[in-house]
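User: I've been going back and forth on whether these two constructs are worth ordering. Before I decide, could you fold them both?

Assistant: Sure. I'll take them in the order you sent them. The first construct and its structure tokens:
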Amino acid sequence: MIKRILFLAFFIITIAFPTASATEWDSATFTLSLENPAVSKGDYTINVVEFDGYGMVGINVSCNGVFIGNTVLANNDSNWNYLDNSRIRLKGINVTDQRILPMYGSVYSPGAEIVFDTEKSSKNPGSLALSISTDKDEYLIDQQIIAAVLIRNIGEVKMDDIHLDVVTDGLTIQGDLPSGFSLYEGTYRSEDIKLRFPAALQKGFYNISVNMSWIDAHGTRNFLTESNTVRITQPIKIFKSTTNEAHPGQTVYTSISVVNIQSRPVRIRLDDALPIFFTLINGTVTDNKPDLDWEFVLAPRERRVLSYQMIPEQVGAHRVPQAHATWNLWGEEYTNSTDSDNVIAIYKGVSFLDRNFPEATPASEAEVASPEISMSAKIRSAKQM
């Protein structure tokens, strides 16, 4: 689940709904895979970045070799994904999902069947395209944000008096954008915007909007806006480890590591639980607590390890419960949990040990006639406990 969330967060998903202007589209259907990851249509090229295996595929889109954006397409998309100022749109039809059998493609060779529409040529010979992208979608508080702004003249005439204005949503901007410049037909200009998070944080995400205006060949001023959202990386990472195998009555050790990766202190509430058929050993819990609940403050970049010991009472494979770290930022509560795949195996009476047996000696002529066969082997022998 966490992987799927990180997969979605990595891409900028642009979903828009067309107005009643009845845009005419040139439509085509393509199949993409890791073996055939790219396809072109007119000036546009789409490239597969990653399949998540659960019905989603991330793609990059470029125009005449210039990157213009990225998005995520899903199996049986209900909405169009618009890019390049709504001049193109994409939709997933069949995308490999290992939860569905029979699936489209396979786990080892995932595929995506997509619809790729491009807007039919406009009658207006003067037009600009605007896009904005960031080097990452999530940042540490003290990291610099770099937003790349791309302006392209996709018309047939020169465009003059182009102005850019940035709305930072509270982010601190470094430097100024150019203003009053021109672009000849078929050319583009790229500018980097450098920003930082404010000293007093009020929320966990910020919208960066770029407003562009220009004068076309008819002397009319046109306007266009594009935006992108950046998020603050959640500060807490949590890990849990336990003894993998034991016997009934034997001590099982557990440790939980909590790390604050940000540059601000965070107050943490940590909750854990014992597996079924396990008993907590008194006096072994960090801070001499009688339970598995802690509250503490983690300083910037601080790591804290908490531990305890327990005794298994029943043989079998026991799933290890997740530990949960909870904190509050900007009036909202956040939780991060440990992996849920850990299992403790409890055996009774038998342990498995590797035994090496001596090499066989050459057989005599008399022994060769015997039906018995000499051999060397390394086997796993069972030793009664």
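The second construct, handled the same way:
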Amino acid sequence: VTTFGIKRSDLILQGQQLYRLITPIFLHGNAIHLIMNTYSLQNIGPEVERMFGPGRFMAAYLVSGVAGNVFSSIYTPNPSLGASGAIFGLVGAYYIFLHRNGKLFGRSGRMQMDSVTRTMLLNVAFGFASPNIDNWAHIGGAVGGAFMAEAFGPKLLVMGLPNGARIIVDKPTIRLPRSIESIPDQITDKFTRVQRRMRVDRFQSDL
């Protein structure tokens, strides 16, 4: 794992192996580490993906993971790996989403923001208390996710129609290129085609 892609601050800051800003996101130290991050991702991921859409969700996740590894490389020499920086980024992105669209969500949105704030503060406090947790990756990930949400995240506006009806439209500050937003759909289409081909092949092999 160390050879393949764990976060190495020295190699990253020297500009020798910048791919290590990305590869640690997909590596974990053991099964428990993987299970804990999977559980956390399952808690926050579906809601963020529903609000942001698959393309912006993917972009926020990856940018947050990279931002977390940048912070970690700058502030700690210790090697690290895991997706927690990216997951913290999703939490940060969700907070910004609730904040900038607070008028639409009202009291429910404020309660969710309070819950997100408590969760992040508790995790950061726990991280600083534990020497085995890369807290700078968590903080950097949250900053990266917040930036992505502020720049590219949903900005919901209520617009009136000529017939008197009202609709909610998404007007982000900056729109991600369609080529990026469509990547998850393209991947899904490819898997679907492969699955169909496999079913056809199995059917033919049974003849």
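Notes on the second construct follow. Strands lie at 156-160, 166-170. Residues 203-207 have pLDDT under 50 and may be disordered.
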